[in-house]
Amino acid sequence: MKHPGVLMSESIATTSYTKRTYGGVSGEERSRQRRERLIEAGLQVFGTLGHDKATMRDICASARLAERYFYENFSNIDDAFEAVHLVLTTQLQARMTEAIAGVANDTPLRKTATGLTAYYQFIQEDPRRAQILLLDAPRLGHNNVRQEGSAMNCFSHFMASVVRQHSRELPHDMDIELVTTGLIGLAVQTGITWYHTGFQAPVAKIVDHNLYAWRGLAQWLDIQAERPMQATA
């Protein structure tokens, strides 16, 4: 067994080695570039093979990097999936936020349609995103609506704000989380069906099929809002 002093010396030597600059590129920058390559490779592997069939060797082969670089960044294949999923959800949130900001003063239904359009366009642009976001992530628990900061949690907050904007005084017995969870489930399941058909229908049609539920909800809220007035009339 090696003496602790030898191990410490080797650790210091390895750290110094990885921080060296080659060709004008620092060790930190090379590490960042390798991580980006691994995540891009993860998108390709997870997006085409699916989570269950993907392996560390597949990702390394796609990135053209040695296996040791994989373990410099990820502890296992699930850790790599989480990293790829985080990149996609961050991109999706940015896309939806930007789109909705453009209709900030519009009607609740228009905001919803705009957000859903951005959501489905993001999926359609790259079918690999559908495999990861629609098929694997929900099954692996990464799209938990209750998980603060997750894409679905942010989407749920957005939907709740739209519902409240439509009706400032919600029925006292209305569970807003159940409502938004159901609407999110509709968006995801519609997207899965759309993906399996090869995105045959245009995005506008997919959005309209979601809006059936939103229009029904809006009508129901209007009815609930009228009841106190009818009772006092």
UniProtKB/TrEMBL annotation:
Positions of the DNA-binding region: 55-74
InterPro entries from the UniProt entry: Homeodomain-like_sf, HTH-type_TetR-like_transc_reg, HTH_TetR, Tet_transcr_reg_TetR-rel_C_sf
Domain of life where this protein originates: Bacteria
Keyword annotations: DNA-binding, Transcription, Transcription regulation
Record-level Gene Ontology MF annotations: DNA-binding transcription factor activity; transcription cis-regulatory region binding
Residue ranges constituting the HTH tetR-type domain according to the UniProt record: 32-92
Pfam family, one: TetR_N
Gene3D superfamilies: Tetracycline Repressor, domain 2
PANTHER family per record: HTH-TYPE TRANSCRIPTIONAL REGULATOR BETI, HTH-TYPE TRANSCRIPTIONAL REGULATOR RUTR
Protein name: TetR/AcrR family transcriptional regulator
Protein source organism: Aquabacterium lacunae
Organismal lineage: Bacteria, Pseudomonadati, Pseudomonadota, Betaproteobacteria, Burkholderiales
